[in-house]
Input
Amino acid sequence: MRCFFRRCAAATLAALIACPAPQLWAANIAAPSAVRTGPAGIAAPVTALPGGTVSGMSLAVPGSLAAPSLQGALRAVPQVSPSAMLIAPLAAPAIGESAPTVSVPLSRILPQSLPAAPEAPAQGQAAAAQKVTGMTHEVMTFLETTGPLGQAAPEQARSTGDKVFKSLLGGPADQDAASLSLAVGAQTAQAPTLTQQKMLHTLYQVAAIFAEQYAPIEEKKDRFQLDLRREYDKAKDAILADPKITTRQFQDLLADLVAGMRDYHVSISFHSTERARLPFLVTGAGGKYFIAYIDRELLPEDKFPVQVGDEVMSFEGQPTAEAVKAIAARLGGNTAETDLRLAELVLTNRRRSRGDTAIPQGDAEFVVRLRDGQLAKVQMPWDYTPEFVPQDVPVRDAGLETADKPAGLLPESGIDESLGATPKKSETLKSLLAKVFDKAVHPLAAIFAEMRSEAADNPFMIGSKKSFVPQLGKTLWEADEENPFHAYVFEAPDGRKMGYVRIASYDGGAKETKAFGAAMAEFNKQGIKGLVIDQVNNPGGSVFHLYALASYLTDKPLKTAHHRLIIGESDAAWAANLLLQIMQPDKAEKKDSKKKKAKADDEDDDGFSGYPVSQKFMLMMVKFAQFILKQFDAGQRFTELTHLWGVDDIDPAPKAEERYTGPILLLTNALDFSGGDFFPALMQDNQRATILGVRTSGAGGAVKPYDLPNQFGIASLAATWTIATRRAVDPKSPNDGQPIENRGVIPDVPYDITEKDMHTGFSEYRDAILKALSDLVGPAAAPAPVQTLKAKPKVKARSGRNPRKK
Output
């Protein structure tokens, strides 16, 4: 019987909300009716209803007392999927907009098709009917006294609702209302499954890293209106909405959350073998897209007559430009040029480990405009590798209630030190220095390396030893193939000697550093007048290796960028232990250092990634450690500006013959990341080079990896833990004090690849490089003028006899 009364109460309240006219509500209360149930928030356009406008108050929208007016006949409402509503939510009504109050009979509003409630027992029907009649009369009388609810103040309306509940249920309104609400909730919501709980916990761990340990979070809020809470809640709601959510769907939610940071240093990768590739590469120029590389081992010319430079008109049924833009849109909306260039790489090389969705199988179809102008439709099978990592393995839990964890809230402060390594044994000076996070590299550099291994001769791959920059002139000297650097001396059009060196990445050590110094010595020996440094498509690497290479390009100290850092207890412990080891080194370490002999090929004995560990370096490292402790003691988890580790200024290389100090032209493009941003900034700010090309990506900080124990295939997670700020030798420079993040380095001489470049082997690019280099070096010295000397021959005396005097 009590359940019957509750159903009456629910129907009564729905009718009360639906119809602001008490008389109309009373006239329809006796008529059998049912409210159609279904997914909340689904709406569809409807056509005009005969008889006038329908008030929003008459639609009984859950949770709303001021719904916007709709016009339409409610006879046939088309179904709209919830996913479509997530993409294009309905616009909210204007605040303060009043809805019309046209009354419509309830029988015209509530559908009648659902079955009626179960009948009450026969012996209680008469009593129940009498009870309902009494309640109806009581509520009608009360509402007529109160007046229209649509004109009542919110407080009065709530009070009226409480009194109506008391009349209907015969008990305390707040208690019964809460009971009714819980009953409805119990029917519509299900308790999260164990998989959902574990996903929520993992989601929380990922979000907490960004909330606590992501350095540019405030800048992203100001620049891009990043709302971490909103992104977290969106992923959380998606998890809870689908009890059958798969591992891949969860991974996609995490990838979207990470992409929302708009940071090329922020990345997540997954354990997966699924991939697909086509043995060619497409790149854009002048708004069109062209074949830039073909793997001729897999696509010999007799079987694939398409040539490098042919235009790709469409790809998989849509214009190529649209296909590229669609991929770029999923990359997070960072730097536009870089997003497009990355999308070009992804177009023909898909990897689930990188977070790519819908790895293609079967045949790819595209249309190419050949050199003779004819269009050719090409079908080519994707080189597809299936997924061998089992998916959706049931999660394991030994009884720990993950639902009790604060998965619904993000922390406001504090760092979870369990995510990082903690000292478990006595630390030595060497082990402490080895913990330095010196990486300024794209966190997906390992995946880039895999892509290079699949097409070793592709000059467009990120980090390739030889790039697409064309040969600049007749070769006069060239480094051998075993040399880690592609370097040569060439003859410029004016006959002078110029140098070229390719820096593919900054991921090197002592061997690479020495090879670079030897190349500079050879350039000096050859007497070059200018040097072209090619660092296009550079993924970055170690800042210490970057500093080491820069030391060979100067004869005076170079100012490095300053950084703000995110620090925590582990950083403070590292700093304290470093100071203790310097002041009181372990006996074992002293003994070991006496026995150890210097080895020229031992990288560890040659400093950090080739950068020498000098007395000055250690002094700066001590100052850095003291800075960390002082900042943390003052309660600063996000520090003030400081030099990074032990380098404030880069000293010149010790051997003068290995320093190249002449003019430098530095080539950049949109696929220069991290160290590929820092090196151009360093050279530009110290007025050491002129830059030609395209703005770099703007990955402006050092990156740190985070361990994330999980059961959902997450292989790695990386985030930016410093923000770099440029330091220019000229305080009036517009770059001084500017961050690199999301801004990149703007070239002094802008140049982007042209359509003619794609057809002529980058001839216009070559001409632009040579012209800029000539302008930088200056005109060749005019040869000394040749003086014309006119020699006047000496006149000889005429021979003959002199007459004798007699």
